[in-house]
Amino acid sequence: MNETVNIRELNEHIQAESSFVDILNMEMGKVIVGQKHLTESLLIGLLSDGHILLEGVPGLAKTLAIKTLADTVKASFSRIQFTPDLLPADLIGTMVYSQKDESFVVKKGPVFANFVLADEINRSPAKVQSALLEAMQEKQVTIGAQTFALDQPFLVLATQNPIEQEGTYPLPEAQVDRFMLKVVIDYPQKEEERLIIRQNLAAEFPKAETVLAPEDILRAREVVRQVYMDEKIERYILDLIFATRYPQEYKLEKLQPMISYGGSPRAGICMAKAAKAYAFIKRRGYVIPEDVRAVCYDVLRHRIGLTYEAEAENMTTVDIITEILNMVEVP
User: 34's torsion region: left (phi>0), alpha (psi -120 to 50) or beta?
Assistant: First the structure.
C-alpha cells in the first residue's frame, strides 16, 4: 500500500517537473513540421545524457531539428561539417604560439559547446571520428598537457547519409556503440510536405523561442533518474538484450545464423535510461513495457551485427528486433 502512495506522489512530482516538455515540443513544432519521432528522440537524448546518430537522406531537416533544439535551450551550439581532409585539431583545438607571451596557448575547437552537430560524420577518417568519440565518452578533451572538462549538458548529434557510400569511412561497430540511439528518418507525409513548402515560401521563416536554461536540463535529468522502474521491466530489458545474443534460448533458433554479435551491456543501460526518459516525456512517474518497446528499435538497431547469411536473405536488424519483440514475453 505504501508503495502505491509513493508511486502516486512520484507521478505527481514528475507531472509537475515535466511540464516544460509540452512547451519545448510547441516551440520545435513552429519550425519542424511533422517528424514527431525525431523530436522525441532528441528529447530522450537530452534528458538521458545520450548522444544520437541520425540517418536519413539529405533534406529531411536533420540539421534544422538540432539547431532548433539548441535555440529552445539557452545553450551554445556548434556545427562541424565532416570532410575527408578534416584533422582532429580542427575539432578539439590545438596549441598556438603567441608571440606576445612567447609561449604556446590553447585555442579551443568547436567541440567546446553544449550542442555539437557532427554533420555527415562518415565523411571523415577514423582519426577524426575517434577524437569526437573520446570527447563523447570521457566528457573531456586533452590538448597538449592540459585536460579540459566539457560544458554540461554536452550532446553530440551526428548525421550520416545512407545513400552515397563513395568517399565515406563507415563508423567502426565499437564506436557506433557509443551512440545511445540511432534514429532513421523517413520522408514526410504529403500534407506535411505541403506545409513545409508553404513555410519556406513565406516572407519570414519561423524561429523557436528560448524556453529553457542549461540548469533546467540538468535538473530534469536528475528527475528522470527518479522515474520508477519495476524489477519485471528490468527483467524484460535483460531478456530483449539476451535474445540478441542467445536467440536459441528464446525459441528463436532461426535467428542464430543471422546474428554475428548481439547487444553489449551498454545496450541494456541505454534501453533503461531511454525508457525512463520516454516515460518522463509522456509525463508518467513509472516505466511500462510500451516505453521499452517504443525505444527498443533506436537503441538496438546499430548494436546487432548481421552475418552474410542475413544479408543474403535481405534480413535487416529491424526484422530481427521485430522477431525478438514478438517472441519475448511482455511482463
Answer: left
